Amino acid sequence: MRRYPFGDASAGQPPMPMPAQTPGLTRDQYGDFAKAKRFWFTYQTPNIASIAAAASTTNTIQFDNDSAFEWIKTTYTVDLTNHATGISAAGGATGTPTAQDAIVVPFVTLQIQDTGQGSYYSNAAIPVYQLAGGAPGLPYVLPAPQIIAPNASLQFNWTSYSTAGGGNETYNNLRLQLHGWKIMRGAGA
Q1: Domain that holds residue 67
Q2: Which of 4, 10, 37, 96 could form a disulfide with 184 if both were Cys (CB 3.0 to 4.6 A apart)?
Q3: pTM above 0.85, yes or no
Q4: Cα angle at 24 between 21 and 30, to 5 degrees?
Q5: What is the CATH number of the domain that holds 159?
């Protein structure tokens, strides 16, 4: 099989030869890999100990060099300092959430940047519950898996807008989890 750098053969461009593929392995844009050498994995952002009303902070995930990551789902965890509105298991709003019947819906926006490529995953900061699921125990499932290159670095830019919601909350232990497949790389992978 021959591939063309842009378009097809009718575009008048010379074909580029495909590099030799290692027998028994699959190839994608990052090289050869064995589908049998993949396993479910979760990357988690470093903990944000506290983010006050109208405050901003940044943290980073450095992905492993030995594997690509196929990002499938996203969840978040957060605690409260003051009270906030939660979503109850019955579907209604609660004044003070408890472990049994509610989760915290933080008034926090998030923008994710791939610092190696300089690209963003959205054109603006988005409320975290829109990126990571807002219902109890339900993750946000990406419309299509995102492949994150080996040794990539994602930067997470967080901003609390809780004063805009009237709650004036401080959130503690805020984390985002990226769930997916870790795909091992290397010769004979």
Answers
A1: 29-184
A2: 37
A3: no
A4: 50
A5: 2.60.120
